[in-house]
UniProtKB/TrEMBL annotation:
InterPro entries: TRAP_TAXI. CDD domains: PBP2_TAXI_TRAP. Keywords: Signal. Transmembrane segments: none annotated. This is Uncharacterized protein. The keyword Signal applies. The lineage of its organism: Bacteria, Pseudomonadati, Pseudomonadota, Gammaproteobacteria, Oceanospirillales. Residues 1-29 form the signal peptide. Pfam families: NMT1_3 (PF16868).
Length: 327
C-alpha cells in the first residue's frame, strides 16, 4: 500500500518535515532477545558479539549478549527458558534434542537449530620422534584427549571408541598437555578448535609434531556412528612443514526453542546470511560459510522461521529438518 503525505493549511513546514522523517526512518527493534555465548576471554565471545551487533543493525530484533561457560551451560539455560538463543556445538545440539549421551533421559525436543556460524576442527597430534603414523599405533600410549571437560575431550573419546582405539588417557589442562608433549612425558595431545591452534604452533616449534590423518574408511565409520561430526581438512601449510590432514569437525552455531517467534527467527536468519561477509571481515572463522553449508550439516530440526528463510532462497531442506509446527 502506498502511503501519501497530505499537507493542509494547518500544516507548518516543521510539522511537514517531521511527518516525512517519520515515514522514512528505519524501523526500530520490535523484539529483544538474549543469547548465551561463552567466557568473555574467548574468541567465540568476540565473534558472537560481532554477530549480534550486525544482526541487530540489519533486522527488527535486538540481541543482547550474555557471558556463560559455553555450549553445555547454554543448552541447559535455553531449556530452562533463561535465554532466548544459545551458542551450541553440533554434538551438544544433537544429543540434547535426541536425549542421548550427556543428555540421556533429558531430551530437549523443543530445541530448534537456526544456523551454523563456523566449523571447529579436531587436531590429533603426536611427537614426530615417536615414530607414530597411524591412529592404531596410539593403543596403550600416554595421550592427552584434550582439556579436561572440554568438547575436544568428549569428541576424542567418542571417535576413538568408534574406531576401537584405546590410548592410555592422560587428563590435564591444555597448557599442561603442551608442556608434557615438549618434555616427552606423553606421546601427543588433541584439541578441537579453529586452525592454526596457538598451542600446537608453539609445541611444534619446540618439539616437531606429526598431525595424524584419518583415512576414508575411518572418516566414514566415525561419521556413521556420530552423525553430528563432519569430514574436515586441515590445509597443507597450516603448520610448518605439515601436509594436508584429513580429520573431523563439528560446527558451532545458534539454537533456539520453538518458543522464539517465527518472525524473529526468520529475521535473525535472514540478517545473518545477508551480512555474513561483514562478519567474516572481523571474525575470520565465519569466512566461507554459506546457508547451503549450514543446512547440509544440520542433523536436528530447524526453527520454523529459519526454515522459511532457507526455502525462500531456494534451498531444498530434508524432511528430517522440518519441525512439527511447520507441517
Amino acid at each position: 500500500m502506498t502511503c501519501r503525505l497530505f499537507i493542509n493549511r494547518y500544516t507548518t513546514p516543521l510539522t511537514s518535515a517531521l511527518l516525512a522523517a517519520s515515514l522514512t526512518a528505519p524501523a526500530v527493534a520490535s523484539e529483544a532477545v538474549s543469547i548465551g555465548v561463552a567466557p568473555a576471554a574467548s574468541g567465540w565471545y568476540f565473534g558472537y558479539s560481532e554477530l549480534s551487533r550486525i544482526v541487530s543493525a540489519n533486522s527488527s530484533v535486538e540481541i543482547s549478549v550474555r557471558e556463560t561457560g559455553g555450549s553445555r551451560e547454554n543448552t541447559i539455560r535455553l531449556g530452562n527458558g533463561e535465554i532466548d538463543l544459545a551458542l551450541v556445538d553440533a554434538p551438544g545440539a544433537y544429543e540434547a534434542y535426541n536425549g542421548e549421551g550427556r543428555y540421556e533421559n533429558n531430551a530437549m525436543d523443543q530445541m530448534r537449530m537456526m544456523l551454523w556460524v563456523a566449523p571447529s576442527t579436531m587436531h590429533w597430534a603426536v611427537r614426530q620422534d615417536s615414530g607414530i603414523k597411524t591412529f592404531e599405533e596410539l593403543n596403550g600410549e600416554r595421550f592427552n584427549p584434550s582439556s579436561i571437560g572440554g568438547g575436544g575431550e568428549y569428541i576424542t573419546e567418542l571417535v576413538f571408541d568408534a574406531l576401537n582405539i584405546s590410548p592410555d588417557y592422560q587428563r590435564m589442562s591444555m597448557s599442561d598437555a603442551a608442556d608434557s608433549v615438549v618434555d616427552g612425558r606423553i606421546i601427543g595431545f588433541s584439541y578441537n578448535g579453529i586452525p592454526p591452534i596457538p598451542a600446537f604452533t608453539e609445541v611444534h616449534s619446540a618439539r616437531p609434531l606429526h598431525i595424524l590423518s584419518l583415512d576414508d574408511e575411518q572418516v566414514a565409520k566415525a561419521t556413521e556412528a556420530l552423525p553430528f561430526l563432519s569430514r574436515a581438512v586441515i590445509p597443507e601449510g597450516t603448520y610448518r612443514d605439515v601436509g594436508e590432514v584429513n580429520t573431523l569437525g563439528s560446527y558451532i552455531g545458534i539454537a533456539a526453542t520453538e518458543d522464539l517467534s517465527e518472525a524473529a527467527a526468520y529475521d535473525i536468519t535472514r540478517a545473518y546470511w545477508e551480512n555474513v561477509d561483514d562478519l567474516g571481515r572481523t571474525f575470520a572463522p565465519a569466512k566461507g560459510m554459506t546457508a547451503e553449508i549450514s543446512v547440509e550439516n544440520t542433523a536436528t530440526p530447524l526453527h520454523a522461521g529459519a526454515l522459511r528463510y532457507y526455502r525462500e532462497i531456494g534451498i531444498e531442506v530434508p524432511e528430517a529438518l522440518v519441525p512439527p509446527e511447520a507441517n
